[in-house]
Amino acid sequence: MRYFPLIPRLQRMFMSSKTAASMRWHSDERQSDDGVMTHPADSKAWKSFDDKYPSFASETRNVRLGLASDGFSPFRNGHIPHSTWPVVLIPYNLPPWLCMKQHSLILSMLIPGPKGPKKNIDVYLQPLIEELKLLWNVGVETYDASRKEKFRLFASLLWTVSDYPAYGDLSGWSTGGEKGCPTCDSDTSSKWLRNGGKYCYMCHRRFLPIDHEWRYDGASFDGTHEIRPKPKELTGEEVLEQLVDVECVTSLETPTRKRNQRKDQKNKCKAIWRKKSIFYELPYWSSLLVRHNLDVMHIEKNVCETLLATLLDIEGKSKDNLNARHDLKEMKIRKSQHAKERDDGSWEIPPAPYTLSLEEKKKLCTFLTSVKFPDGYASNISRNSLLRERKLAGLKSHDFHVIMEHLLPLAIRDWPKSLSTPLIKLSSFFKQLCSKTLNVKDLEIMDKEIAVILCELEKIFPPAFFVIMIHLSVHLAKEAMIAGPVQYRWMYLLRGHPEGSIAEGYLLEECLTFCSRYMEDIETQFNKEDRVYDCDDHGDAEDRLPIFKTSGRAVGKVTSLAQEKHPAVTEHLQALADGPVVL
């Protein structure tokens, strides 16, 4: 592991007068909030932290940090099984136009492959946690170049940012299986699909008002009445109580074989914790309103990918297949969509409200790939379209972001309203959620609307459609009300520039550049000739036209011409030697 100490990097941010002044922007220049959030400083989580620790908040130069981590393959060949994990810190004191820029991010450590650290990531995080505890309890003396004075700098970690698998590695919660939602905790509603061989997460009627008519409409949903209230969100102190008997990970462990999921069904009321996170060593961690963020980028990507795969019936990715129809029959719902066995033993799958004809699939793919975007707005989606197979392949996270929020509502506007209306509402939800500014009142409305949208989708799509990523959408608006705009808490900052996380080559180049400044007797990058170096040896250069002042020199391999075989060349060279040629 390569570790980059945090304290000297924070001190370096105050050595420049411009950077030091920007570190106070959240207090000195930020406009007073009026229910509109443009920065994490406007959020409820930030203000709650200030209220609980007034001595920390009294010094506006104290740093608030976010931690982001994700694995990627540094090789171009994606088939090579290698996963390198950078851990990056985000200084939230900076203004919005600097906060998420690559030059503002602090690379804390680089965890090598070839496999991801998984829950053992706590072992690698130990030196960072020690520095964070020092920055909270004692602080470090720092010079402020903008005020020309010394002060004692303190810092705190507000939350972590990661995709959903890494969420489990950082928090210790088991993000897969029956209790896969960390927000719903042990009250997560899930159902094991025997034919599909996985859990589905429906029961979004729990998030509706207690007197809503859909709670008693079992025929349109899963065949049952829903009278339970929505799950209670636990505080940090309540979560810490669950972790009393859970051990921390203090050394690298050999992965053990997982138990059968069916054995875990006996402990349905027990929260599934794989470890006690190392972040609880920070004295303030349990008091934070949001400790680990749900990544909107990956949730939106997975929702859009699941939706397109089901609508286009992409083999291996569609959630509507023979097993899904068998699960409908087992749940005794939607009899008209049950698979029917033919005389020859094969199965016939009746069309569903979301089933598209071949022509409709081709029209959808053609529309998505024919749209032209301004330069830099989106990638060329047409490269990922296979019109003959009527499917999309190889799309990136940002491609799904553009399709979900901008293209999909236009592509399905002529579809039956029973199908297009909830999908357009879902698209509008993500578009408002990803806005640069968020209004608290709008988020309260969105929090109620997303529950209705997911219930409308439950009436259309099969239970297999509702994977954990679909369910997590119901918590995004509530989390935004607490933590602020999502662009400060998603994974585009790491996925956009993964090469910036490779430290070895950068440090080598940095060292060689420093040393080469003192080496004058050998060729370095500071004194070597340019690749095309034009020298002028003629004394009459001042008498020439400006474009001919530099004579130039030969570049490339020397080639000799046999003069006896080329008399024309010989005459031309002789004429050049005698004097100027008149054209």
Q: What is the spatial order of strands in the main beta sheet?
A: 1-5-4-3-8
Helix content percent band: 25-40%
Summed up, the helix count is: 22
Principal-axes shape call: globular
Mean pLDDT: 84
Radius of gyration: 31 Å
The largest sheet, given as strand count, sense and whether it forms a barrel, is: 5 strands, mixed
The termini sit apart by 69 Å
Structural class: alpha+beta
Query: Which range does the strand content fall in?
Result: 5-15%
Low-confidence stretches: 257-270, 497-501
**Structure summary, number of beta strands:** 15
Describe the protein's architecture and organization.
It is globular, with a radius of gyration of 31 Å. Among the domains are: 2-176 and 238-253 and 274-294, no CATH class; 296-483, no CATH class. Helices cover 35% and strands 10% of the residues. Helix 17 runs antiparallel to helix 19. A hairpin with a 4-residue loop joins strand 9 (191-193) and strand 10 (198-200). The protein contains 22 helices and 15 strands. The protein has 583 residues and is an alpha+beta fold.
